[in-house]
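Please check this record.
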Amino acid sequence: MTPLSPFHLQEIADNMAPENKRELRLLGYTNLRVAMSEMYEQSEAYIVRKEGGPIICVGGLWFSEDQDHPQMFTIFTQEAKDNFIMLARGSRMLVDFLSQAQSHMTMTVLADYEGILNWAVWLGFEPVGVISIGENKYVEFIRCNLGENCVYDKASRPVVH
């Protein structure tokens, strides 16, 4: 994993998977480079790639003032399907890495993409609801890191008076 830099934005925009292009259009973006620039400025993002090879995906957390928890996102490139094992390992590593600093993460996935819905569950996200935005349905997920961030998971100590 490598932190996302402005240097990577055009490569991602040029090689983005058709599903991600569609999702960005549904979110109102007409220019992929503008969408990538906003992602860079408003998120903590990392690229997954084989050393010296093409970018397979970029993922991270989008922080927004109107949300209680950061939103995890992933943008896949066209190389993702050809590098599925690397994608799976890299995704799990990214989620484990991000979980170290976050007690909760959310994810919203277009309901049309069954493979991505299953991938979210495999990463430890739980579906919590379905919302409609216009004609499109999205599944909302949450991932709680209770083992690291919850006092109820620690051994209790007796109270000393």
